[in-house]
Design brief:
The chain is mainly alpha-helical. The protein has one domain. 56% of the residues lie in helices and 4% in strands. It has 4 helices and 2 strands, in the order H-H-H-E-H-E. It has a two-stranded antiparallel sheet. Helix 2 runs antiparallel to helix 3 (57-75).
Length: 103
């Protein structure tokens, strides 16, 4: 009998809950980011070629950058204190001044 992914996850959790062992989750961050970036590149290329067969280099670059950022926003929870609008902002974030709540 084939189990769906969710059924396997539930069975895994049930097994460890019954054994009273602490369960730790370790994310493969590199794999998550790699997939988001690859998906963003493909999506950006498709968007750049949506209305023309020969988009210029700057349009391709912008569409890919926008799509990568969208994909990264899906897997990364960024705080409000870091301003990120472009890929270069993501790679070199500028921290905004955080105002004191008592002021």
């Amino acid at each position: 009998m084939l189990l769906s992914s969710w059924q396997r996850i539930r069975a895994f959790i049930k097994k460890y809950e019954s054994e009273k062992k602490p369960m730790f989750v370790k994310f493969r961050v590199h794999n998550i980011l790699e997939r988001a970036i690859e998906d963003g590149i493909e999506l950006g290329m498709n968007r750049a070629h949506k209305h023309t067969d020969t988009p210029d280099h700057d349009l391709i670059k912008q569409k890919i950058e926008d799509a990568i950022m969208e994909q990264l926003w899906e897997v990364i929870d960024m705080t409000e204190s870091i301003k990120v609008e472009t890929m270069s902002d993501f790679l070199n974030p500028r921290r905004e001044d955080v105002k004191d709540k008592d002021a």
